[in-house]
Specification:
By secondary structure, the protein is of the alpha/beta class. Helices cover 22% and strands 32% of the residues. The chain folds into three domains: 57 residues, OB fold (Dihydrolipoamide Acetyltransferase, E2P) (Beta Barrel); 202 residues, Rossmann fold; 117 residues, OB fold (Dihydrolipoamide Acetyltransferase, E2P) (Beta Barrel). The chain has a seven-stranded mixed sheet with strand order 9-8-7-10-11-12-13. Strands 18-17-16-19-20-22-21 form a seven-stranded mixed sheet, with helices on both faces. It has a six-stranded mixed sheet with strand order 1-5-6-4-3-2. Strand 8 and strand 9 form a beta hairpin. The protein is globular. The chain binds S-adenosylmethionine. The site of S-adenosylmethionine (SAM) has 18 residues, from helix 5 and strand 17. S-adenosylmethionine (SAM) binds next to helix 5 and strand 17. One of its GO terms (molecular function) is rRNA (uridine-C5-)-methyltransferase activity. Belongs to the class I-like SAM-binding methyltransferase superfamily. RNA M5U methyltransferase family. Keywords: Methyltransferase, S-adenosyl-L-methionine, Transferase.
Amino acid sequence: MVRLHIEKLVAGGLGLARTPSGTALVQGGLPGETVEAELWQRKNHLEGRVIRVLEAHPARYLEALPPSADLPLEYPYQLPIKQLLVQESLERIGKLQFELAPVQPSPSYTAQPGLYYRTAAQYALHPLGGLAYRRPRSNELVPIPHDPLIAEPLQPAFELLSGWPLANLEEVVLRGSIYEQKVQIGFIGGHARHFQKTAQALVQEGIAGVVWGASSPKGRFRGPLQHLAGTPHLLEDFGGVLSSVNVQSFAQVNPRAAGLLFQEAAQVVEPGRKAVELYAGSGVLSLHLAHRFTEVVAIEINPSAVKRGEADRDRLGVQNLVFVRDDARVLGRHLPADLVMVDPPRAGLAPEVLAGLLEKKPRQILYIACDPATWARDIGRLVQGGYRLRFARPYDFYPFTHHVEVLSLLSL
Ligand SMILES: C[S@@+](CC[C@H](N)C(=O)[O-])C[C@H]1O[C@@H](n2cnc3c(N)ncnc32)[C@H](O)[C@@H]1O
């Protein structure tokens, strides 16, 4: 066991500390804290985990939070940490000196800033009843009697499920809408036919809809899926664009913060003839930008997201947007374009996408990222390939966690 002083948080939410044997990256401490940690050797650095906090950060948040909340600090203190984390990722991984615009805080949903913002959450079922979280990087189940990160419309559903007998299930998923003040539930695992009656009873209790998904090694809702009861989707307001959301496909979990990002994205790009969005989900970003282009193509792999996007487009009367259900790696077929927008999963851009961008060289690339490390890697490569980074701003979509979103614009 060693005593360490945590200097700062780095990408991945790990605390960086210096030791006589080299740099250590530890899980569980906050910048400025003195901790006792156990360490082990990784390739070229030490890694570890905090066992005890010896001198806590004066603004440490002391109320109970779920284990995913790895930044337990009073809200205003979280923001400079995220700003620095993105800035340092860009310098260390992207090898770029560039001054970021100041972090955009999450808008408040209640009188308590930073809490009650998430409109989606997944829980495991504790063997002794109630909902539980899997501790990050382990299989340990931690019971959670209350989750102050989920938005208010999800709270009654959380209570209901906590006391409901839900045998033979692996996970429950919640997706709510602040706009509609309603919630959908997803059941994962077991057999759909065992949950028909439960689903109907939940709808009678006020749940808007229930969907079942088979447990699949490919991931949540990547196997067989069945709609069990109630409505198939909800509407949510993302910065003035009403977009459909459902439990089984991706949508941003902090709608007000995402709405601000989409609005700023629409302002920072130069208008043009054609825009292509890769990793488009249901195309909320394209819907925000469509009026600035003659033609917009949104490419997304998930069929449910494409279906929702097409319905949203028609409901909103947007006529210059087409969806293509395909892999982002086919981007070459849709270029040239004046703008390519990307919002990839945490792994960042697929090598084929990066190569396609560098070959076809669209004039502008709008890059939205949920992982600063892979974003910085990709930005570094695009800059090496001739682009200039023009604008980048961290957005706090995920208060009380180390996660941070980035909006950025590159051009030739
Ligand atoms: C971070 S989400 C962004 C969605 C959307 N921009 C939004 O804000 O709602 C990433 C999206 O990429 C999609 N996706 C993942 N891999 C893909 C691929 N290889 N080709 C196309 N879409 C992909 C996922 O289904 C998901 O909808």
